[in-house]
C-alpha cells in the first residue's frame, strides 16, 4: 500500500490497451481503497487484511492480496493475457479467494465484476 492510502494511481490508459488490463488494474486499485477503509475502522491502524496477511495468505503481501481481489472479483485465473502480464506474480488459490470474499463482505466491497 502506498503512503497515502486514499490516493489512487492508475496507469495511463495508453499503457493499458485492452479491456481486460483496464479492469484488472482498476480492480486491483479498488482493493487498496478497501484495504485503507479496513484499516480506518481500527484506532490502532490494524486491519482484517493485516490479519489475513499475517496468517500467511497472499504470501503475506498486500499487493498480492490486491491482485487476488481482482482475480476473484473478475473470476480470472491468470495474470497474463496474450503478451501482457500484470500484477505481482502470484495467482491466488481457492482458499485465498474465499478469504477475499469474506473480507469483501465484511467491508461491503464488491465481490463480482
Ligand atoms: Zn497495488
Structural summary, described in words:
The structure is a single chain. The protein has 113 residues and is mainly alpha-helical. 48% of the residues lie in helices and 4% in strands. It is built from four helices and two strands. It has a two-stranded antiparallel ribbon with strand order 1-2. The longest helix has 22 residues, at 19-40. The protein is globular, with a radius of gyration of 14 Å. The two termini are 22 Å apart. The mean pLDDT is 88. The structure holds zinc ion. The site of zinc ion has 4 residues, from helix 1 and helix 3.
Q: Which helices and strands, and how do they pair?
A:
Elements: H1 19-40, H2 48-54, H3 62-73, E1 80-81, E2 84-85, H4 94-106
Antiparallel strand pairs: 1-2
Helix pairs in contact: 1-3, 3-4
The structure holds zinc ion (ZN).
Zinc ion binds at residues 28, 32, 63, 66.
Query: What's the β-strand tally?
Result: 2
Fraction of helical residues: 40-55%
Radius of gyration: 14 Å
> Which small-molecule species are bound to the chains here?
zinc ion
The biggest sheet amounts to:
2 strands, antiparallel
Shape, principal axes of CA atoms: globular
Strand order of the largest sheet: 1-2
Number of domains: 1
- Percent strand equals under 5%
Span between termini: 22 Å
Top keywords for this entry?
mainly alpha; globular; binds zinc ion; 4 helices; 48% helix; two-stranded antiparallel sheet
Task: Summarize the model shown.
With 113 residues, the chain is mainly alpha-helical.
Amino acid at each position: 500500500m502506498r503512503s497515502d492510502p486514499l490516493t489512487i494511481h492508475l496507469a495511463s490508459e495508453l499503457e493499458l490497451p485492452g479491456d481486460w488490463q483496464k479492469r484488472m488494474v482498476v480492480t486491483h486499485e479498488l482493493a487498496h481503497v478497501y484495504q485503507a477503509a479496513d484499516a480506518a475502522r481500527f484506532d490502532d491502524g490494524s486491519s482484517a487484511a493485516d490479519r489475513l496477511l499475517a496468517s500467511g495468505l497472499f504470501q503475506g503481501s498486500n499487493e498480492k492480496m490486491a491482485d487476488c481481489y481482482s482475480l476473484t472479483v473478475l473470476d480470472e485465473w491468470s495474470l497474463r493475457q496474450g503478451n501482457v502480464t500484470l500484477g505481482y506474480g502470484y495467482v491466488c488459490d481457492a482458499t485465498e479467494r474465499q478469504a477475499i470474499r469474506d473480507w469483501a463482505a465484511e467491508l461491503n466491497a464488491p465481490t463480482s465484476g
